[in-house]
Amino acid sequence: MSAETAGDRCPVFELHGVRYVYGQRQVALDGIDLVIERGEQVALLGANGSGKTTLLKLLDGIVGPAEGSMRALGLEVAAVVDGAEAFRFHREVGLVFQDPDVQLFSATVYDDVAFGPLQLGLATDEVRARVAEALGLMEIEHLAERAPFELSGGEKKRAAIASVLSLRPDVILLDEPTASLDPRTKWVLVDLIRRLAKAGKTLITATHELDVVPYIADRVVVLGESRRVLADGPAAEVLANTDLLIEANLIHEHLHEHDGVRHRHAHEAPVHHEAEATPAPEHS
Amino acid sequence: MTGARAAAAGGADGRRGWLERTMADIAHSIEGAVFSEEHSRAAGWLQRRDPRAKIVMFVMTLLAASFAATLPALAALYVVVVLAARVSAIPTEFFVKRVWLGIPFFAGIIVIPWIFFAPGPRLFDLPFGPLHLAPSVPGVGAALVFVARVGVSVSLAVLLVLSTPWAHLLKSLDTLRVPQIFVLVLSMTYRYIFMLLHIANGMFEARKSRLVATTSGGEQRRWISGSIGNLLNRSVKMSNDVYLAMLARGFTGSPRTVQRFRMHAADWAAIALAAVIALAASGLDRLVR
Q1: Is a pLDDT exceeding 90 seen at residue B204?
Q2: In contact, A269 and A252? CB cutoff 8 Å
Q3: DSSP letters for B217-265
Q4: d(Cα B193, Cα B1) in Å, to the nearest integer?
Q5: Residue B250 to residue A110, Cβ atoms within 8 A
Q6: CA quadruple B93, B96, B102, B105: dihedral sign
Q7: Residue A227: which residues within 8 A CB-CB, separation 6 or more?
């Protein structure tokens, strides 16, 4: 899909009244209305089970909505799910799964990173060039010949992201990229995500880690336990809304005493949106 | 785990259950046999060869061993295999033990009937009432050739696996025109069997850490059947997720791989050497026969 196609002029994603149901009864998403424009950096915030992962899978066109209309890059998502437009779509949109063990299924990291470009039918030299580029971007050239099971959690995450970057997608969906990582690795990944944002990619990151949000998103969409969108707005505004975050179960209110006075206040106080003024700490 | 805790968790005697022990042993064996790349990463002669060349060398030598019907030919081939292991920095004792500790037992069981029922003169005849223990000379000869043939073949396979990283071995199956979908499934099977074994081990340990008294046999059986169901559910979910991850990267049902190996003059020379050895072994076999 070239930069000049009609897909460029319409929103990257356009969802109206989207509902998704697991099995026959378990509602994962309900009445989702969402429009995401090219070049935006969006954080999908929500507690566990709020439907973030399901929404990312919908956006990636690997599952289709039960109800509602959904267009991605100007294409009907149903056509992507059916396979008719899948080839075209997956050149543009890449999903990094939450569990890297799901994403890294090949015998070596190199093979995993090469998997996507090979499926696109690219020439061998082009595949090699893309693999080298993706490994370089994630700074894991030294892991190319390693088996995924040998890697640490952080290395697996980087390899998983590299396996998507080798497709050179314009839109990258990241599912909990910093979950279960040690603090250093977490911030290294945040730096890498910021680099992707600076390169002009559309980034949609599902997370419940509030401290990283100001660094990776300028817009926040909050999913509530009702499986609906609770809020959608600028990151600073949403993160400053304590009541909203409590309602979404992202922070909790705790009753306790200070100096003999019993009172409630929020724990994991929302961070202020200072990313523009104060860059994320450089971690190397 | 301390002895006291183990005792509390594992029952009165604190021993690990049979199933738990078996799972842990299988995981350990797979880890050791398939994923330990200590020898395949060593700087040896075979390790420097292109994996595809090694596959061709392996097939040629294996064919020579399969068609050999005399002990001298098989012995000659075995000497060559041991020498190849030696120049490939694989400890001889480890290599020989790994092959020969199990083979006489398993191959022996298969040939025992033939030793006694093959026609021809007897080595000796020990009467036990109405029965006679009388191994036949041709039967013993055939059994020795059979065991030797199995030994050489297994040695070749072990040498190939020890000197080649598992990933390279799978990739080089292309050389044998093995369909890519088969190679992909095989590599994913190994990848996830290992992982599921670790999950199963974790489940055993999680249960153990919460047990405070001896459980009855029925209870243990119920737990085991529940765990098997749980593991099956998890593996089904994971296989679905893996498939979605493949779809997300454009998978349409026909996997493609990128070949990164390069054959050098030394690899072609090694193939030629293997061909000469295979022909020489066949020649020796005919000569002795």
Answers
A1: no
A2: no
A3: HHHHHHHHHHHHHHHHHHHHHHHHHHHHHHHHTT--S-----------H
A4: 26
A5: no
A6: negative
A7: A27, A28, A29, A30, A50, A51
Cβ within 8 Å, pair B195-A145:
no
Distance (Å, whole) CA A157 – CA A181? 9
Cα R_g (chain A), whole angstroms: 19
Q: Rounded to whole angstroms, how far apart are CA atoms A210 and A239? A: 8
Greater model confidence, B88 or B17: B88
Contacts of residue A95 in chain B, CB cutoff 8 Å?
245, 248
A145 touches chain B (CB under 8 A): yes
Contacts with A145 from chain B: Cβ below 8 Å: 165, 167
- Is residue A47 within 8 A of residue A225, CB to CB? The reply is yes
In this prediction, does ipTM exceed 0.90? no
Do A97 and B252 lie within an 8 Å CB cutoff? no
Collect all residues of chain B within an 8 Å Cβ-Cβ radius of residue A60: 248
Q: Which of B242, B251, B255 sits opposite A102 (nearest CB)?
A: B242
Give the nearest partner residue to B257 out of A95, A116, A118, using CB atoms: A118
Residues 234-273, chain B, touching A (beta carbon < 8 A): 238, 241-242, 244-252, 255-260
Check CB contact of A273 with chain B, cutoff 8 Å: no
CA of A241: how far to CAs of A245, A267, B230, B246, in Å? 6, 13, 41, 39
Helix (H, G, I), strand (E, B) or coil at B215: coil
> Is B258–A149 a contact, with Cβ atoms under 8 angstroms apart?
no
Contact between B137 and B115 under an 8 Å Cβ cutoff? The reply is no
Least confident of A34-38, A195-199, A268-272, B284-288: A268-272
Q: How far is B188 from chain A (nearest CA, A)?
A: 6
> Whole-number mean pLDDT of chain A?
85
DSSP calls for B146-179: HHHHHHHHHHHHHHHHHHS-HHHHHHHGGGGT--
* pLDDT value of position A284: 38
Radius of gyration from C-alpha coordinates of chain B: 25
CA–CA dist B57, B273 (Å, integer): 8
Look at residue A113 in the predicted model and tell me its pLDDT. 94
List CB contacts of B223: < 8 A, sequence separation 6 or more.
B207, B215
Residue with tokens 């026609």: B119
Contact (Cβ atoms closer than 8 angstroms) between residue B175 and residue B56: yes
How do residues B124-183 score in pLDDT, each as one tens digit?
888 787 777 788 888 888 899 999 999 999 999 999 988 988 778 887 887 677 887 888
Encoded tokens for B215 = 């459980």
Determine, for residues A105 and B257 on separate chains, whether the beta-carbon distance falls below 8 Å.
no
CB pairs under 8 A between A and B: 97
Contacts of B260 in chain A (CB under 8 A): 110, 128
Does A110 reach chain B within 8 Å, measured CB to CB? yes
